[in-house]
Amino acid sequence: DAGITQSPRYKITETGRQVTLMCHQTWSHSYMFWYRQDLGHGLRLIYYSAAADITDKGEVPDGYVVSRSKTENFPLTLESATRSQTSVYFCASSEGLLALSSYNEQFFGPGTRLTVL
Amino acid sequence: GEDVEQSLFLSVREGDSSVINCTYTDSSSTYLYWYKQEPGAGLQLLTYIFSNMDMKQDQRLTVLLNKKDKHLSLRIADTQTGDSAIYFCAESGDSGGYQKVTFGTGTKLQVIP
Question: How far is A65 from chain B (nearest CA, A)?
Answer without folding.
Answer: 20
